[in-house]
Every structure is written in C-alpha cells, then in structure tokens.
Amino acid sequence: MTESTAPESPGASYAAAGVDIEAGDRAVVLMKEWVRKAQRPESLGGLGGFAGLFDASALKRYERPLLASATDGVGTKVAVAQRMDIHDSIGHDLVAMVVDDLVVCGAEPLFMTDYICVGKVRPERVAQIVKGIAEGCVLAGCALVGGETAEHPGLLGPDEYDVAGAGTGVVEADAVLGADRIRTGDAIIAMESSGLHSNGYSLVRQVFLERAGWALDRRVEEFGRTLGEELLEPTKIYSLDCLALARTTEVHAFSHITGGGLANNLARVVPDGLHARVDRSTWMPGPVFGLVGELGRVARPELEKTLNMGVGMIAVVPQDSVATALHTLGERGVGAWVAGEITERGEGGPAVTLTGDHAG
C-alpha cells in the first residue's frame, strides 16, 4: 500500500512575511543623490555605513563646546501627505521641527539622522521623503549623515509611513541662550509662521475633512489654492535666521512655537518673577487659523493652545537691540514685529498673558 504524501508548503521567508530587501536597496540608490547635497565639510564617509561620521576636530575653535540634541517627528501631517501622494515636503517639515528646537539655546545645527518607518517600501516614495530631508538640511546649514528605513508590514498599511529625526548642534558654553538672560523691559519679537507648520493636524483634519467634509483638492478662495496645498505648506526653517540674529545683535532667548501654542512655549523661557505680555493686535493670523475656528466652532483658547496662530518663532531681545533685530530679519526675508514685552510678574500670576484682539 502506497502512502500518499501531501505537497509541502513553501518555507517561510522574509519576503513572504512582507519585507522586500531588494526594494530597500533600490530606495538607498535613489536617495544617494539627495544625501550628497546635504553635507558639510566635517561630514565623513558616505551613505551605506553603519553609522554617520562627523569630524569633531572642527569643535576645537570653541573654548567650551556644548553639544545640543533634539528629536521630533511631524505628527499626523503625514496622513495628508499620504492622501495627496506628495512626500518631499514632509521631509522638510521634519528638519524644521528638529533644528529649530536646537537653535533655541543658540546652538548651530551640525548634523541630522532620520528614521522612516513604512508599511511597504516603495523606493520612489522613500527617495522623495529623503529628498525633502536633504533639502531641509541645506536650508538649515546642517548635514544629513545617516538614517534608517524600516519596513513594518502588518503594523502599517502598504501606503502608510511615519518619520522621525534626531539632530545635534553645538554652542559655546558662555553663549547659551535661555531664561537666565531675560530681563524686565526686554522686547518680544515675533517671527511669522509659514502656516500651520507641523502641529495640531489631528484637530485640523477633523475640522476640514470630517466635520466640514471638504476634499483636499477643493479650491479655497481664502487660501488662493487648494485645501491640500495649504495643509502641506512646509514648516518654516528659522535656524540660520536665528543664528544670524545672534551674531548681529544681543539676543536673550528664543522660543520655538510648536505643540502647545504661543503661550505655553514662550512660558518655557520666562524666568520666575517675570512675565511676558503678548499683544494680539500686533498681527493678523493667516486665514487657515480663522477657518479652523469657524468651521469647527473651536473656541479661541483651544485654538491658541493647539496652533501657532501665525507665529513660528519668538526672540526676546533688549529694547536697544530691537531696531537691529528687525532689520536683520527683514533683510533675510523673515516677517517680524514687536509683539510684546517682559514685565515683572505679580504674586501667583501667569508666566505669559495674551492681550487684545488680532488686527484686521
């Protein structure tokens, strides 16, 4: 009697589990061109090593160099990019979120690494993300020295991804900016944001896409472009502007206005006993902020603690530095204005107060 034998099932493999190593290799080939453009003289080696190298002997010119580090992502803004199938601006956003945290203490961004997690490696799309990161690094004056692309099938859908980045900068120990430098009478200079930047997109998407039911390709007269184009406007990169400001005049502190809004982020650099008064009447937020409030019936306190409301970076400077600061920023094409001042804080009073109503 002959015993029948069932056909053997194919053995397990990484490819069968959903990970395409060949696609990953092709993505590396496509991104090399962009990574080469995001270098500094101190960058060593090339793409493909196990670690990025940076020549630290360049720090010898510092008397006491302090290294600063920061890490961040771009939140649910990636969901808009995925729906529109536009991916390079997300890389730009990632750089902005990292380097503009570094520069707050006065640090010059030196280099960045990135982490891209995808449901399925689509080489051209990964290369577009890296292209945006590389272009952002050029605008920030830092190098892109390495990164990682990870494929997580089953955890993310085939067209889903997330990004994160980490950056390192350097600042002279006696040039560190922050709360200990701020004095009564200092001026608060606001720098205009390019739009929503990369915060509050869970609220923004809920208002426009779910509550209002607007399509991303809908043309919005207030924006002069489509909703999707407005939502994907890249985050402004301020690092070189802030460094130029610190070189040309006295700066006591910077504050990067991200999640938590203007008041909460500015409060992080206001020392005990002092108070920052910001006058809303000194600027008019862009129309996207008003439409989020109107369509979603979002109360002003909720808007202001979620969105940047038109201000992406704050500089706190002495009164006698105001004219030079505004001139420097103006020459660099950064919209800036005096938005308030530092005063004494009353007993039990808040660190930051927003007063008045927006212009317009």
UniProtKB/TrEMBL annotation:
One of its GO terms (molecular function) is phosphoribosylformylglycinamidine cyclo-ligase activity. Pfam families: AIRS, AIRS_C. It is found in: Cytoplasm. Gene3D superfamilies: PurM-like C-terminal domain (3.90.650.10), PurM-like, N-terminal domain (3.30.1330.10). Keywords: ATP-binding, Cytoplasm, Ligase, Nucleotide-binding, Purine biosynthesis. Residues 63-171 form the PurM-like N-terminal domain. Pathway: Purine metabolism; IMP biosynthesis via de novo pathway; 5-amino-1-(5-phospho-D-ribosyl)imidazole from N(2)-formyl-N(1)-(5-phospho-D-ribosyl)glycinamide: step 2/2. It catalyses: 2-formamido-N(1)-(5-O-phospho-beta-D-ribosyl)acetamidine + ATP = 5-amino-1-(5-phospho-beta-D-ribosyl)imidazole + ADP + phosphate + H(+). Residues 184-349 form the PurM-like C-terminal domain. Its EC number is 6.3.3.1. The keyword Transport does not apply. Belongs to the AIR synthase family. This is Phosphoribosylformylglycinamidine cyclo-ligase. It comes from Streptomyces gossypii. The gene is purM.
